[in-house]
Each structure stands twice: as structure tokens, then as C-alpha cells.
Amino acid sequence: MSATELQFRTATFGGFQKQDVLSYIESSNQSHLEKLEQLQRERDELSVEKEALAAQAEQAKGQADALDKEKQALSAQLEEAREEAQQLRAQLEEARQQARQADAQLADANARLAQAEPDAAAYQQIKDRTAGIELEAHCRAQAVMQQAEEKVHRAHTEVEQWLHKVQAGYDLLRSDMDGAIARTGQELDKLHQMLEQLSSSFSSQDEHLRKLSQDCADQIAPPAPLPLDEN
């Protein structure tokens, strides 16, 4: 007799055959147990999957925290680079001020030298007697002036080269920092989307587990036995 058949053979004195009813109950119980085992397996698989998703979510959260710390460190480095650039600008302004002072001193020396030339002409006779001394002094003055001009020119050149180098380094550092911050922001956005997807998946899995648990609870209750007539 099939397990799904609901008709039983009747007994001689009314009622149904006891064996038919017992066979039906046994078949129903067997089907019920098989379905219950299947539901329990599905519930166990979903529990394992939920634990794996929870581990992935925890790992993603750790990565997000690490990226956030890296972003904060990069921001601190960028601020430090900005402060260093301000200090370098101040040093450059000071160097320029010193160069202007050197130019002023050189101009003053040239002016005094120009004033000294007419006075020297008035003492031509004295210069004739001391020509050797004045010539030597003039050569020394020319050498000093030339050295001063060379120092000023070299200082100008070195300061300009240093300024260009510092500006290029600052621009490169800022570009690298901006790129790193932008990449960090993109990674944080991706991780945020991943966490939202995991949260949605958890909600769906919880609902599925709840339904399976309800089905299991409904399936566990055995069917009410049919009345039996003893032969």
C-alpha cells in the first residue's frame, strides 16, 4: 500500500484494518523524519554560512579600521609637510633679506669708492709718491669687491635653486599625499558597501533560519493517531 493513500481496508466488523493504519502511521512518521532531517541539515548549513559571513564582516571591519588609521597618519604627515614648507618659506625670506642687505652694502661701498676718486685726484703728487701702495690697495679693493659680487651672485643662485628644489619636493609630496588620501577614501567606500551587503545578507539568512526553525517546529509535532478498532 502506498504511504500517501488515505483509504484503508475495512475490517469484518466495521472500522479499518489495523495493519493498514499502522503502516500508514509508520510511513507518515518515516516521511516526517526524513523531511525533519533535511530541514536540520539546511539549518546547520545556513548556520555555518552565517558564521563565515560574520568572520568576513569582522575582517572587513578590521581592514576599514586599518585604512582609517592610515588615512589619519597620512593627514598628519601632510600637515607636518605643510608646516615644514612654511618654515622653508620663512628661511627663504630671511635669505633674500640677507641678499638685499649685501646688495646695499655693495652699493654703499661703490658710492664711497666713487666719492674717494675725486679726492684722490687732488692729491696726485702724493699718489705719485705712494703709487705702489695705492695700486696694491686698489687691487685689493677690486679683489674684495669682486669676491663680494661673486658671493652675492652665488648666494642668489643657490637660494633660487634651493627654492625650486623645495617647491618641487613640496608639490610632489602634496600630490602623493592627495593621491593616497583619495585612494584611502575609495577603499573605505568599498568596504562600507561590502559591510552593507553583508548586513543585508545576514538579515536574509536570519529570516531564512527563522522560517526553517518554524517549519521544523511545525514538522516535529506528530499527526494525531486515527481511532483503531481492535479485531
Poorly predicted spans = 1-6
Please identify the top-level CATH class: Mainly Alpha
Number of helices: 3
CATH architecture: Orthogonal Bundle
Largest sheet: none
Q: How many domains would you count in the coordinates?
A: 1
Arithmetic mean pLDDT:
78
- N→C terminal distance: 20 Å
Instruction: Assign an overall shape.
Output: rod-shaped
The H/E string reads HHH
CATH overall fold name: Helix Hairpins
Structural class label = mainly alpha
Number of strands: 0
Radius of gyration: 49 Å
**Percentage of residues assigned to helices:** over 70%
Describe the structure.
The protein has 231 residues and is an all-alpha fold. It starts with 17 loop residues before the first helix and ends in an 11-residue tail after the last helix. Helix 1 packs antiparallel against helix 3 (131-220). The chain has helices at residues 18-122, 124-129, 131-220. It has one domain: Helix Hairpins (Orthogonal Bundle).
Q: Which short descriptors sum up this protein?
A:
single chain; 231 residues; mainly alpha; Helix Hairpins; 3 helices; 0% strand; disordered N terminus
Question: How is the topology of this model organized?
Answer:
Blueprint: H1 18-122, H2 124-129, H3 131-220
Helix pairs in contact: 1-3
